[in-house]
Amino acid sequence: MRNFIAHDYEGVNLAIIENILRTMIDPLKSEIEKELHSAG
């Protein structure tokens, strides 16, 4: 995905990127926080 975004700016569908960010940021944040708390 990164290579597609980094090298094909005109073909990037911003709605898809926005959807990914909106749906994945909170779960990712929760998982990172769990790992940080269990490591510390």
Number of helical stretches of at least 4 residues: 2
Mean pLDDT: 83
Query: What overall form do the CA principal axes indicate?
Result: elongated
Largest sheet: none
Total domains: 1
Your description of this structure?
The chain has helices at residues 2-7, 14-39. It has 40 residues and is mainly alpha-helical. The chain has one domain. The protein starts with a helix and ends with a helix. The mean pLDDT is 83.
Question: Which helices and strands appear, and what pairs or packs with what?
Answer:
Blueprint: H1 2-7, H2 14-39
Structural features:
elongated, 40 residues, 2 helices, mainly alpha
What is shown here, in short?
By secondary structure, the chain is mainly α.
